[in-house]
Structure formats: C-alpha cells, structure tokens
Amino acid sequence: MKAPPSSPADSSNAKHINLILLTVFLDMVGVALVVPSLIFRWKDVGISTERLGAVQSIYSVAQLVGGMAIGYLGDRVLGRKDVLLLSFGGSAVSYWLVGTADSVELLVLSRVIVGLVKQTMTCASALLTRLSSDATRAQIFGRLSSASTAAFLAGQSVGGVLSSRFGRRVPCYVASALFLVNVVLIACFLPNDRPSRKPPADNGAGPDASAPAADSNSCGGGSGSSSGSAESSAALAMKFAPTPRPPPATPAAPVPSTWHSRLVSNLGGFASAFRGVGGRVLTLRLLYAFLMRSTYALHSVYETQRWDLTPADTGFLSSYKQVNAMLPSATECHRVPPSATECPVCHPVPLISSQLPQRCER
Fold it and tell me: How far apart are CA 85 and CA 27, in angstroms?
C-alpha cells in the first residue's frame, strides 16, 4: 500500500527543518573550531589565570542576560528568524574579534558579544517545535542532537590541526565565515515569522450580515387571502427582523503595572519552579552545573600547563572526551527499564507534565 502523498505544507516544513539542522551543524562546527586555540589566544594577550576566571564569569552573566532578552525579542518583537540572524551575525563579529584581538579588552568584548547574542540552540529548538508534528518531533530533535554532537566532535580536531599548521587566528576567521554563511542561508530561505502587531478586529455593534433578510415574497399581499392583515404582517416582520446586538461592554481600565509589581510577579514564578519534587531535582541540577562549570573554567589551563599541549593535542583530546561521553548514551540507554521513566528522580522530564506519576512506584 502506497503512503499518502505529502501536502505542500509538509514538504515546505521539511525543507525548513533541514535548513535549520544545517545551520545548527555549521554553527557548532564554527564554535568547535575555536575551542582548541581559545586558551592559547588568551595566553597570547598575556592574561593571568585569576583574570581568566573572572572573564569566564562575565561570559556566563552575558549568557544569562542575553538568554532572557533574546527570548523576549523572539516571542514579542523580532520573531525567531530575525533572532537567528542576530545570533549568527553577532557570533561572526565576536569570533572575528577573537582572531584579530591583540589586547585583553578586545577578547573580553568578544566574549561579551557572543554571550549576549548567541542563542542558536534555543531559537532552533523553538522553530523545530513549531514546524514539527507530535509524531515527528522526537525524531527531529534526535537529528538535532546528532548534528550538534557530530559537528562538535569533528570541529575540535579540525580546529586543532588548522591552528597548528596555519596559526591560532585562522580557525577564528574560518568560524566567522561559517557564521556569515548561516546568515545568508537564514535570510534567503527561511520565511519571516515576525509577530503581528495588528489591533484586534472590532466586535462591536453593527449590522448582522449573517441574519436572514426579509423575504418580500413571503411578506407581500396574496391574491384575496386573509394573510395580508396588519397583525400577520407585523408577526412576519418580527420573525425575520435581525436580532439587535447589545452595545459592547466598556473595557475596564487597565491597572497600571509598575516595575515593582512586575518584579514581584516574576520572582514568584521563579520561586514556584523550586517547589515539590521537581524543585528538588532542579536544585540538584543547578548545583551540579555550578560545580562542573567552576571546575571546567580552568581545566583547559591546567591541561595545557601540566602536559605542555599544543592546539592540535587539545583538539584531539577534546574529541576523545566527546566520544567517551557519547558511548555510554549510545550503548546503555536501551538497558534502562521502562519503569525508570516513572520515577521523577531518575527521569526529571515527567515532572513538567501533571499527567505522569509524581512518585516512585518501585
């Protein structure tokens, strides 16, 4: 039995999905190219270990601020296409600065820029969610994860080789060129999705176009019959007359919103995320992320100083770590028993849905 032909809308969505996956792949390749040589660029400008830790904190703060700002712009103002253009364009400028910088200040500026604007995965995930159906969403997000992992796996090794053979600035320029390619692809082939700002249609009083008009034949006088009396004509007129609509209700005056009330509301929503079992899991994840980030911030410095690594060594070592991280996920996920997905501690995703159990059953 042949599969039903796909509609033009499905074909268009498939093209846009493939386009987004391609840009994510190029984006992650660009990031991975610079990873092996980035620590050496900091050494070139003479930054100390203490200042490098402070720079990493500045980058994290820029990411936090940029994530909230980009999310608002994508949903309310610019649309996700323009946000992707902003992300790729800002990344191109930032990585070009990494290659050309001869001072600590320029390198710090490059990290601030990329932290503020680079939200590729967030925007791509939102677009893929909108373009995919419930039946295909898991498969598409699996392809997204595979594309980013493969790009990061290969990009670090290639970046290390480029840095060793052509200089530490070359991977930065190649990465900037890849981001510019993404700008062209998104600008030319992804449709605009900027939110509409049109005011809502007026639903006030007016003539009812859907009401049936009076039938002149049914209300006209017959040939000598008694239905032409005044009482019968009045009843027919009332029957076919359009029903008048009540006047629109006057909207209540909006309560003025102050920055204090908005802040209290946002803090209340933020605090509610830490309640219950889900809140405890979220707290553990935040602590884990904090410890990992504080360790990883200077881990590359320790490796290069302890074993006198070159950029090529750093790239191959990073790819080796990525392979080691992938193998357990690829080989052991199928061994997880189905009941493990019912435990909110083992599987935190069901915590978001109220339809799934909220306690361990074994």
Answer: 12
